[in-house]
Amino acid sequence: MNTLGIVVGALVVVGAFTLGWRWASRRWSLPCPSLLAWTLDNSLVEQSPLTLKTLDRIGFRSGDKVLEIGPGPGRLLIPAARRVMPDGEVVGIDIQPKMIERLEARVKATGITNLSTILGDATQPLVPEATFDLAFLCTVLGEIPDRAAALTQCYRVLKSGGRLSITEIVLDPHYQSRSTVRRFAETAGFQFESIQGGWWFYTANFVKA
Which of 2, 37, 203, 207 has the most beta carbons within 10 angstroms of its beta carbon? Predict the structure, then answer.
């Protein structure tokens, strides 16, 4: 088989897998498999304009105590830990043990000391009430079967005036529209603040009034 045939074959396999995953995710709210963590765990992705834009839109502040739901291998949580230094700290809750293991290994390798992890279901009360200044989710809300419960927990764990930030990218199999995100957040008690970006890649920010 020539090189062109190999490339075309590979593209067909990847395309079929992507479409299959999108279809399955729409039916069962499947989380990103830990086997695909390598697609997010590399310097090219971490330094990409999309990643940097997302971090800027979330709006980290020095000294913030931050919670990320579904951090995976830490594409956003690790740079977030740097952005809240010197007095801030970040926590990641993930339901997949392999993702937590990969994130913890990366944290150890980078020497970051203000990042901790929790293995568990984000729809459950895993952390104390009114603990965090900011909670965020990036292409994760659609992976959670009970989205309302997850955002209710975000509301519970935020301090008064705390911020919720949700980022969605249309290419993600679990993509949630702007109207859907706003409806779930406002039902949980959040007040809408702003949306940055177009429908294909946006960050919606809310506040616990």
Answer: 203
CA 68 remoteness from chain centre: 6
Q: Which two tokens stand for residue 92?
A: 């990641």
Alpha carbon distance 114, 36 (integer Å): 26
Other C-beta atoms closer than 10 Å to the C-beta of 87 total: 10
DSSP string of 124-165?
S--S-TT-EEEEEEES-GGG-S-HHHHHHHHHHHEEEEEEEE
pLDDT in tens, 123-137: 999 999 999 999 999
CA dihedral 148, 121, 175, 78 (to 10 degrees): 120
Q: Delimit the domains of the chain by residue range.
A: 1-30, 32-207
CATH homologous superfamily for the domain 32-207: Vaccinia Virus protein VP39 (3.40.50.150)
Q: Are 96 and 34 in contact (CB under 8 A)?
A: yes
Which whole number is the average pLDDT over 66-86? 97
Instruction: Give whole-number Cα distances, 16 to 21, 28, 149, in Å.
Output: 8, 18, 32
